[in-house]
Amino acid sequence: QKEVEQDPGPLSVPEGAIVSLNCTYSNSAFQYFMWYRQYSRKGPELLMYTYSSGNKEDGRFTAQVDKSSKYISLFIRDSQPSDSATYLCAMNDYKLSFGAGTTVTVRA
Amino acid sequence: NAGVTQTPKFQVLKTGQSMTLQCAQDMNHEYMSWYRQDPGMGLRLIHYSVGAGITDQGEVPNGYNVSRSTTEDFPLRLLSAAPSQTSVYFCASSAREGNQPQHFGDGTRLSIL
To answer: Which residue of A has its CA nearest to B59?
Structure first.
């Protein structure tokens, strides 16, 4: 069993829709939770970084962490074609562990 | 504002050949790492370094060597390339290991025939 499981997708949504991405994990030692965005033929870039359970907002993006359920989510409001990318969840104790990624396409 | 620079961007090798993937960062980061990315597998850690002169194995180290002679550079060597090493390789760095987010290069796409 992988330490981090991510819904594989792919997801295709119309422009303006809310995108919901999820990951579950098994390691209780994970303390820091991240979401990376990866455009085609590019390296992952950090999108959101959280430590505690709860919500964190940054513009159209909201990251949720529920440590009791070992579950994290990323929501993208008012999605745009420029949000089309692969989204990777990641979390760490002393090293970073990644989900497999979910590819999102926002249709204009 | 270069960040993490990887060279080459693309490479095709024959089975049994050796090569070195280069990685350099200009952020004075102590922690550097190499990942491989395969479809459906996500990013898997190959080797990492917590500072110059110190390296350690990650999740999938077999067939790869690393060294860290300077803070800036962290090359990855394929000793005898195998088709199973066909992948996209990413180098990353962070201020320190553990809780700091990592900055990634744009990857090297490697095909082994």
So the answer is: A97
Strands A11-14 and A102-107: parallel
- Judged by CB atoms closer than 8 Å, whether chains meet at B106 and A8 is answered as no
Nearest to residue B89, comparing CAs of B70, B66, B68, B113? B66
Amino acid at residue number A56 = K
Residue with the two structure tokens 């992988």 = A2
> A2 vs B17, B42, B48, B110, CA distance in Å?
32, 11, 20, 25
Find the angle CA(A21)-CA(A27)-CA(A29) to the nearest 5 degrees. Answer: 110
Tokens standing for residue B108: 């090297």
Looking at residue A84, what is its pLDDT? 97
What pLDDT does B39 receive? 85
pLDDT of residue B97: 64
Closest partner CB to A98 (pick from B43, B98, B103): B43
Query: Token match 């000793």: residue?
Result: B79
The burial class, CB within 10 Å (0-12 / 13-18 / 19+), for B31 is buried
| pLDDT above 80: residue B36 | yes
The whole-angstrom distance between A23's CA and the closest CA on chain B is: 13
Q: Which of A35, A41, A58, A96 to mutate to test the interface with B (most CBs of B within 10 A)?
A: A96
pLDDT of residue B98: 60
| Inter-chain residue contact A43 with B41, CB threshold 8 Å | no
The yes-or-no verdict on residue B1 having pLDDT over 70 is no
